[in-house]
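README, section 4: Worked example with a bound small molecule

Sections 1 through 3 covered apo chains. Here we extend the same pipeline to holo records, where the ligand is supplied as SMILES alongside the sequence. The molecule in this example is manganese (II) ion. Nothing else about the input changes; the structure line simply encodes the ligand pose together with the chain.
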Amino acid sequence: MKNNLDRFREKLIQEGLDGAVVYKPENRRYLSGFTGSSGYVVVTRDKNLFITDFRYVEQASKQCEGFEVLKHTEDRTVYDILNELNVDKLGFEEEFVTFMQYEKFNNKLQDMELVPLKGIINKLRMIKSDDEIKKIEKAANIADEAFKHILDIIKPGITEWEVSLELEGFMKKSGATGTSFESIVASGKRSSLPHGVASQKVIEKGDFVTLDFGCVYDGYCSDMTRTIVIGKASDKQKEIYEIVLEAQESALKYIKSGIKGFEADKIAREIINDEGYGEYFGHGLGHGVGLEVHEAPRLSPIGKDTLETNMVVTDEPGIYIHDFGGVRIEDLVVVTKDGCKVLSKSPKNLIEL
Ligand SMILES: [Mn+2]
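The generated complex, written as structure tokens:
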């Protein structure tokens, strides 16, 4: 089977490029396996170089299989090494390279045209290998366990911050190397903030609590959201919850290989619209997840990508009402030929704690 690097080189050649320099951390890791924080992957038609500094030479030699590892120094800079290669058109990550770095490349590289990679790597990364899916599934399992655990912890009087610490600590003790993002614990009226990161607010009886979190396992992220009620839910809370749940499950039934991102979004959005809450669902239905917690494809009104087998995406509609509160329910799924496999196993019935 072709590895990520072979597939990348094939694409480069198809696009008429002679090589590329890649150093966005997730792309670098995807192509080389390097997990450190500094280094350049340089791929040409016949060479794989990993250029790094003194700190990472040993690590790169161990991790970057199939790469020649070179050390850059003041006497032999990255630009010097690039100039030694016989390359006319060099691809670069236009969405990651800063203006300053671009100017440096431009000034120091001789007779080389810098060409935007135009998302070649993002497109490759959209479709996951079985090995990548296993890692994402493991990260999802850890998050599910953390949710189960946190239900025993949350009670009136605890702060959102304490809840997030407990969630994150639990995940790290369970094998996660970190969190996918700053955990969202938004309670009461704060739950109308779609990205209300945990604050010092005390959780009270009657609150909605939205928990949106995930962890990183062997480089790969998970992402899930559940909303619960502290004590008995009010009629309005129940109403909103059921609408979001119906939207979420309808999209889940619809997601499969061959549909477009905006079509999945539309299924959920129409349900919320028909119930009169359309204006309170102001974000897209979902996104791809992998080495980054937000990556291609997008499932939103403007998501043009077609879903394909082995893409990993979220399904996360929500309703957010200012001064009242909000609900979001999010599952992580693997797209299959006829549907999708749900990786998030946590219950979705309305939990009243
Ligand atoms: Mn998400």
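What to look for in the output: The pocket of manganese (II) ion is lined by residues 223, 314, 316, 330 (CB under 6 Å). The chain has two domains: 4-125, 127-342.

Section 5 describes how to batch many such records.
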